[in-house]
């Protein structure tokens, strides 16, 4: 199995996430309340990935920190970066955080 850990987005971390958004949708979602999220430790290597401001990384974090965990998986669930399948209905094509992070929205 994989090792997961809970993370909490601090005020500073949330502000940093705000500073790397690209789109109005990201800005809208950023305004939603955020919560703790589960991360697979061997899949998440460094905050440098987020600092690249790649849209899929920003979207994945927005989904993971603001979305809802679902019991139903996706076709890529064994490769999940964020523990349970977390989605935001009506946003990011309904992709889960892990698929969005990997730019695999269409495979979700």
Detailed description of the structure:
This protein has about 110 residues and is an alpha+beta fold. It has one domain. The chain contains 5 helices and 4 strands. The chain has helices at about 10-20, 25-30, 50, 55-65, 95-100, and strands at about 5, 35-40, 70, 85. A two-stranded antiparallel ribbon has the order 1-2. The longest helix has 12 residues, at about 55-65. About 25% of the residues are buried.
Give a short synopsis of this structure:
This protein has 108 residues and is an alpha+beta fold. It has five helices and four strands; from the N terminus they run βααβααββα. It is 34% helix and 13% strand.
Structural class: alpha+beta
Total beta-strand segments = 4
How are the strands ordered across the major sheet?
1-2
Radius of gyration: 13 Å
Main pleated-sheet profile: 2 strands, antiparallel
User: Which regions contain 5 or more consecutive residues with pLDDT less than 50?
Assistant: none
Q: Helix segment count?
A: 5
Whole-number count of domains: 1
Layout: helices, strands, pairs:
Blueprint: E1 4-7, H1 11-19, H2 24-30, E2 37-40, H3 48-51, H4 55-66, E3 68-70, E4 85-87, H5 97-101
Antiparallel strand pairs: 1-2, 3-4
Defining traits:
single chain; 108 residues; alpha+beta; two-stranded antiparallel sheet; two-stranded antiparallel ribbon; 34% helix
